[in-house]
């Protein structure tokens, strides 16, 4: 691989390359489509999968096929009026509500943190190194993920040498790339030290336990208590969290995902009086539409607003 190819590869996220390659394979191998393709073939492809695939999945497949045509110098059939109209019809016929992860509310965060605290002490007293590592890592991952509102890809790309702790004040984390950083400019994220449920002390406990000085912050731990060299994958955070919530006795642990921490923090911040603009800046949302996907008015708050209005009207 020459230097030009190396830089071209670095400019695109691994997950994007893999998902695009998977989409092209699905079109060519599973659906038996021919590339380069036509607008009519693209329309048939969408129609054949409209009932079984989510609209976002279909859009991602079209994006991959569009990229393939552009890379190979062919006209892009995915931009044709026919394809756009078919996609619009699929949205109308197969409209379904978005499946969203349950927000990690503060009371649940407290429940899980209390369980982790007890589990860490138990592991330390019994000499269970595997459990001690796993619980200490998970505590740091959960608290930092919540209070910083990190996405799963941001958590797994944190590196020890790019993280700095200021005692009794907080910590800063530098990320060279993230999902919203399209220009790969990098960004510094700050997180304060707290009197309880503190992400900074949990991070310090993890680093002191492992002795890590560089490389990924959050790593795999094998059954014998050995810490891996590579970081966790973003896709592995969902099973990690659901397993943790199951152990901690949280109701319906399968309703949570890695987005739960981000959604939970957003809800907490809004309920605590944060302005939408400062919340967007802190979390890293680029537009209000993206932010509002994570914010919901609870049924209790909605009822209180209506009752308050009824009272004034009377």
Topology (elements, then pairings):
Layout: H1 3-10, H2 14-30, H3 39-49, H4 55-71, H5 81-93, H6 106-126, H7 129-148, H8 152-156, E1 163-166, E2 170-175, E3 187-192, H9 199-210, E4 219-221, E5 227-231, H10 237-247, H11 259-271, H12 276-283, H13 288-292, H14 299-313
Helix pairs in contact: 2-4, 3-5, 6-7, 7-9, 7-11
Description:
With 314 residues, the chain is mostly helical. It is 56% helix and 8% strand. It has helices at residues 3-10, 14-30, 39-49, 55-71, 81-93, 106-126, 129-148, 152-156, 199-210, 237-247, 259-271, 276-283, 288-292, 299-313, and strands at residues 163-166, 170-175, 187-192, 219-221, 227-231. β1 (163-166) and β2 (170-175) form a beta hairpin. The longest helix has 21 residues, at 106-126. It is globular, with a radius of gyration of 23 Å. The termini are far apart.
Question: What are the main properties of this structure?
Answer:
314 residues; mainly alpha; DNA polymerase, domain 1; hpI Integrase, Chain A; 2 domains; globular
